[in-house]
Write a structure and sequence with these properties.
Elements lengths: L9 H15 L14 H5 L7
């Protein structure tokens, strides 16, 4: 993501959308790969990380 787009919640919004689609299709787990800088977007909304 471009530096100017960071900090606006776009990654968290995208994660929420992906998880919603996954749940709609009956999936209970989603694997994600991210950088240290974006880790908060994954766990910030209470997503469980293993």
């Amino acid at each position: 993501m471009a530096p100017s787009a960071r900090g606006h919640g776009y990654a968290a919004e995208a994660i929420g959308a992906v998880l919603g689609v996954a749940a709609d299709h009956g999936l209970s787990k989603v694997m994600a790969d991210t950088t240290v800088e974006n880790y908060e977007a994954l766990v910030g909304d209470g997503h469980r990380i293993k």
